[in-house]
# Entry
Amino acid sequence: MAKANIKIGVGGIGLNPISGYSGGGKIILPGVADYYSSCLNHKMSLAENPRYGEVNHPTRKEMDEVVEMIGLDMIVNVLLNSNGVITDIFVGHPVEAYENGVKTYQKQNEPLKEVKKADLTLMVQTSPTKPEIVPAYPPNFFSAMDAIIKAGMLTNEDGFIILDYECLSGFFHKNCPSCKVCQAYILNAAKSKSSTDVLQMVSREKIHGWIGPLIYWMSKVKEKIRRFVWVNSLIDKDLKKMNYDVEKNVSKALTKILRDNKKITVNIATHNIPLTSKIRL
# Structure
């Protein structure tokens, strides 16, 4: 790519737990970068809390530097509404156009800097779940990781989470060459006794850096929660291997929790809720 006469990056802008926001230089690193570079870049985001909404941190700075190094001529970044329809488009210098897009996103979505955490969070999937209307990349376990982390940010210590999220394409995208490797990372992390153990696995590269922060934050969520019920009918065997409680519908999940916990506060949110890193996990 570096030898091309004209280099144009295309992408979308939205909240991201590792880079703060998607879009901009992310199309190059990790987009078309080698595996090792991607791992090093993402590992820099390893911290106690996800990077949602952050614009000034090492992972994003390196993305911007790489864009300048290879001479990306321009980017085309879009904003989407909840129905997947383009609402704004930003074209121009890879960093400047991206930053303008982020500012517009912040005005439109007003990312939440404070929330009132609850004893129970019901996190609901907004992606289409019917086979005839699914997107080009159907939701799977990898895309659900974001919802798990956000649910943890909305829930009190020793609380409960119900995640209503179908994984239409299984564990990961079918064409992903690293699918089985990542699945092994997650299954191994599920066997760990604590999030500290998972953190050590990432630092020693037993779990590679590009997915390490996500798995670490997921382990923190499971550690703080008394009970996690996943409403899912497609990969229930895999989920049970990871010690998730699985139900076929939300009604059964609610009954299971409320039967012994009558007076609890509840948050209901969709998986694309605009949170920021100011909300502590």
User: Anything to note?
Assistant: The two ends are 39 Å apart (CA to CA). The beta strands are 8-12, 15-16, 20-21, 74-80, 86-92, 118-124, 155-164, 225-231, 245-247, 266-270.
